[in-house]
Input
Amino acid sequence: MTINNRMYLWLLAASLISTPVFAVDAPTQELSNQSRLLPDYQGVILATAVTTKLVAAHRIKRANLAQEPASLETRQLADWVVDSGDNRSMPFAIVDKTDAKVFVFYPDGRLRGAAPALLGQARGDDSVPGIGDRKISSIRPEERTTPAGRFVASLDRNLRGEDILWVDYVAAISMHRVHTNKPKERRLQRLATPTPLDNRISYGCINVPVKFYDNIVRPAFTGTNGIVYVLPETRSAREVFGSYDVDAHE
Output
């Protein structure tokens, strides 16, 4: 056998031995790479699925004020109450002190009714400590505030036997029919004017029209507690309620 023939046979043998190695190792290596990448792909798929479920689970909810005029602060707070469920499926009311107006809602956020209101004579968002135990005659004009905040409210009767909606029992603040026992205060006329500038006259209680109380307030809170939100006028709603802007969550 010549040298060239021997060289040819040696190369042929080498090729036959090495070829199967590549034929086996290449698919094995590919599968190994895929197995290392598979958990990462699974994580991405799982994270995407969870995110999709979370987005689908939290759909923005809003209050329905229909065509009732309301301030931006009132609308934002009403939307937050409904979206967050802060009212705990109870009826709720919002008192806008700046606009001197009360809004009463069904538990699901549909507006039940709205009306003007008379409020505390003094501007401010806090009650004087111990004011609920004092005689009305001792309360100075600058102390006659309607406190801001979130209050669990319920129907009851006052010392004169009148049914009222207690808002802040400790501070003796309630929502009730407008008092007309002092004609010089012209409370009915104040409620009828289109401006809120003359609606600050009470010692702190929230006076509403008689029909509004009888047809809206009392039926809404009969047989159940509810929540009354009194909007602040010296602080922000977020500071008082811990609320958020629902529009920012879209």
Remarks:
- The longest strand covers residues 149-157.
- Confidence is low (pLDDT under 50) at residues 7-39, 50-56.
